[in-house]
Amino acid sequence: MLPKTTLPCALLLSTLSVAACSSSAGAPAAPPAAAADAGVEDATVADPPCDPPKVTFARSPVAIAPTRDHHVTFVKEVGGAPYLYVLGGEQDDFAIVLGDVLRSRIAADGSLSEFEKVGTIPRGRAGAALAVVGDDVVLVGGVVGEPKTGFTDEILVGRIDAGGRLDAWKAGPKLPDLVQHSTALVRGRDVLIFGGTRGNAATKISAKTAVSEAGELGALTPLTPLDTPRSHHVAFLRNDTVYLAGGLDKGPIGNPPSLSDVIRAKVNADGTIGAWEAAGTFAPLSVSAVEPVGCSLLFAGGLDESVKGGPYSNRVLRASVAKDGTFRAESPLEGSLSVKRGHVHQTPVYKGRFYSVAGRANDQSTLGTIDIGTIAQP
Description:
This protein is mostly beta strands. The chain has a single domain (9-376), classed as Neuraminidase. It is 1% helix and 38% strand. The chain has one helix at 32-35, and strands at residues 54-59, 72-78, 81-91, 96-105, 116-120, 129-133, 136-140, 143-144, 150-151, 155-159, 169-171, 183-187, 190-194, 206-210, 221-222, 234-238, 241-245, 261-266, 277-281, 285-286, 290-293, 296-300, 303-304, 316-321, 327-330, 349-350, 353-360, 366-376. The strands form 8 sheets. The protein has a 4-stranded antiparallel β-sheet with strand order 1-28-27-26, with no helix packed on it.
């Protein structure tokens, strides 16, 4: 681990609503399978009503160490066995930037084994956007810890080998800014990248790269810029349309309010995107994650400004997308996480289990606890 350093306020991005510097969550990448039917109407798109799934949460007896937030999380099958992967993250307001690649085998009942280390990220990485394209893992931007802690414009790609290790990384194109808290979505082999913060300001980044069959990243191609800056938001794809929800429209310094708007842009046949337009509104939210479950979109934890005793929440908010593309706020889930947490940027779902790993607690400590939700569709 790296020695503790003193950072300028613009890098202390973890203490929304508590200190003068704040931060919110990046967004999970949509899984590659979701992009396979691009251009075909998605059967999970809701017409009202969208009945909620029943999700029962329980804390796993297995915790992750070191504790962390601003990490990335995904599930990947290796040799026919599923594993929960957790990469990087930070501790102590980025005094320590983690570079470990850990994984835990998922049992048939959804429970977890103890974590094992299966790789390293060069220079460490926290607050990166994540995209998983087949066996290739893409990390976009973030904060690095070596040789000096700071934001990066790097895009890295690493391939998970036959044994499940992830330690052979290649550099790709550079982002137009040094940023963290962007979002990345997967459409086929394209990786679509949106927004991010420079620390003192949000950005209008809108671009894409592609992962070749050989595991190489192509050039960064500009897409239709965001109309207003945005970072710390979540992103998802529905019916070949990109949706961005919540986040911040300025730098996190001074605790600006989280956004409540949702915007969308259609993906064209040539892979470009159309104009951005309003799609709906939601609870003011940042530092969260989004995961599709049936017709519902589930937003677990994060900085939910409608909750008292925060800044972070243990609620699971819910929304849906109607067939006309309108984003609709729905009733929250009845079940909740075992602890209020933020900066959990992905909450992967695998075979009826929902995983929320580590994060930032309301006392500003980093967590190692894992909540596993068992999903029953209505």
